[in-house]
Write a structure and sequence with these properties.
mainly alpha; about 350 residues; globular
Amino acid sequence: MIKSGIENLFPGYFAMVMATGIVAIACFFEGLQTLAYALSTLNVAVYAVLVVLLSIRIVGYPKRVAADALDHVRGPGFFTVPAGSCVLGSQLLILHGLSAAAVVLWFVGMLSWAIVTYTFFAAVTTKEEKPTISQGLSGTWLLAAVATQSVSVLGTLLAPHFPARSELILFFTLSMFLIGCMLYLMLIILIFYRFTFVDLTSERLTPPYWINMGAVAIATLAGSRLILAAGSSRIITDLTPFLKGFTMFFWASGTWWIPLLLLLGLWRHVYMRYPLRYDPQYWGLVFPLGMYTVCTIQLSKAVEFEPLMIIPSVFIYFALAAWLAAAVGFVWAWIPKRPQNQPI
């Protein structure tokens, strides 16, 4: 069972690290310190286990890993590796002040981002036989934008720790922010077309479509962090009006997505009666809720608009409820089940 589990490990499982890390940061900002530190400790353990499992899978089953990495459906899941590494790095820096660990995770994030980005997009571009949009495109593709923005966020947080190179680091994180924006704008057009003009069954309306919102939420966070760091960079200072407008645009876009995604979820599970059972993809729903909480806090500071703080004070509990539901589902899925025909 363990061997099979490693061989078939879901490529996007690092979304658990992304979700737990951002909810821990949200709790920390909202004054729930005890819960934040508990989630932080758990997240370090989850990340360590997943790194070991992924390493074993790469060494033991390289063909399966390669097949997943080049696949239109499963391939985007690997973007959770750089995203999870950078979210964990941000968590360790914000909650514990562990700058050295955060730097290591940032370099891991950058290296894995480069490998996954260029491997995946080169592969799907040159592939001779390609699936249709309905078969190959989903919200997981937006993890490419999320991973890019996560590198930007952690780099901006680390810039003050390297005064001599702060300007250079911020130029790099600004560039990553803009690349992430480019990826989102390109991909969301295809996804919205997929939503409105291609058949979308309840089975295919999977939880990662919440990344439609999560990707703009992390773009908002990256932009807000850059605005707050403007005093350390002449280029960012010059671009601050543009950054404020662009960041507000992404926050408003993310806010617009929330009611629509809720309605689609009700359609899937209530109207269409699609069974609600644990799937590792549900961590891709938890992350956007936590990210929206954190990005709204930082946007409020960046644009100096205090009324926005009302939103995260409420939204944090939605993020916590979603995390708890996913965690309970994960534990339940791993509990051995007694066969129905076996007597008690």
